[in-house]
Amino acid sequence: MQKILIIMAATFITSGVFAKDRPVVAVLDFTNETQAHWWKSDVGRELGGMLANELVSTGAFKVVERNKLDSVLGEQDLGASGRVSKSSAAKMGKVTGAQYLITGNVAAYDENTKGTGGGIGFKGISIGGKSSKAYLAIDLRVVNATTGEVEYVRTVEGHSKGGGMNFGFSRNGFGGSLGGHKKTPAGKAIRAALIESTDYLACVMYDQDSCVKEYRDKERSRRESSKSALSLD
């Protein structure tokens, strides 16, 4: 009898009976508070799409298709304001089937370039000449589409360095206005911040295991580092 129960339990687990339900999320257009040179009117939509792709790649979420969002976005002007009221959250959740709405705001961006002497270029590959680094901070908000309450808030930072042999990389591809930036420090910082964002969301909204403490410690370290830059009495 005991062996039969063990076999049944194993069967349930492997067949997904005991598998966790993946949260259904909708990703809104990003907003911007910086003077980033790469920001254009359609970049907010592109970043939302890139974040949605990264969320799907974690396997922890069901992501609402963008065409289901467009009509509600147009009515509520959420793409421009980045604000989600309780009534608009409930409406969007009802129309799209989303349990959560995810918003992102580019809160800080900085890029520094300095000469390193010499430098040659061939077919888009640069060796030497200039060294660049970029910093990007994104404020994430996850809103419950039923209650309109903000359930998760986090500032995610991305850093990157360029120079030397600059090949760049592509994962779920840059396109549109950002298409020319995927090999730049800006593009690398954007991708790093988006991947960190989705790893965090998968942890707190789906995995909910030891990673939660790891992210809590990481956030505490980030806050301490930011605070140390200011001299307090």
Describe this structure in words.
This protein is α/β, with parallel strands linked by helices. It is 42% helix and 27% strand. It is built from seven helices and six strands; from the N terminus they run H-E-E-H-E-H-H-H-E-E-E-H-H. The chain has helices spanning 2-15, 43-58, 66-76, 78-81, 86-96, 185-207, 211-228; strands at 24-27, 31-32, 62-63, 100-122, 125-144, 150-161. Strands 1, 2, 3, 4, 5 and 6 form a six-stranded mixed beta sheet that branches. Helix 2 crosses helix 6 and helix 3 runs antiparallel to helix 5 (86-96). Residues 115-129 and 163-171 have low confidence and may be disordered.
Helical fraction: 40-55%
Strand content: 25-35%
Structural class: alpha/beta
Task: Work out the helix count.
Answer: 7
Gross morphology is globular
Report the span from N to C terminus: 69 Å
H/E element order = HEEHEHHHEEEHH
The profile of the biggest β sheet is: 6 strands, mixed
Q: How many beta-strand segments?
A: 6
Radius of gyration: 21 Å
Nearest-integer average pLDDT: 78
**Unreliable runs, pLDDT <50, ≥5 residues?**
115-129, 163-171
What's this, in brief?
By secondary structure, the chain is α/β, with parallel strands linked by helices. It has helices at 2-15, 43-58, 66-76, 78-81, 86-96, 185-207, 211-228; strands at 24-27, 31-32, 62-63, 100-122, 125-144, 150-161.
Layout of secondary structure:
Elements: H1 2-15, E1 24-27, E2 31-32, H2 43-58, E3 62-63, H3 66-76, H4 78-81, H5 86-96, E4 100-122, E5 125-144, E6 150-161, H6 185-207, H7 211-228
Parallel strand pairs: 1-3, 1-4, 2-4
Antiparallel strand pairs: 4-5, 5-6
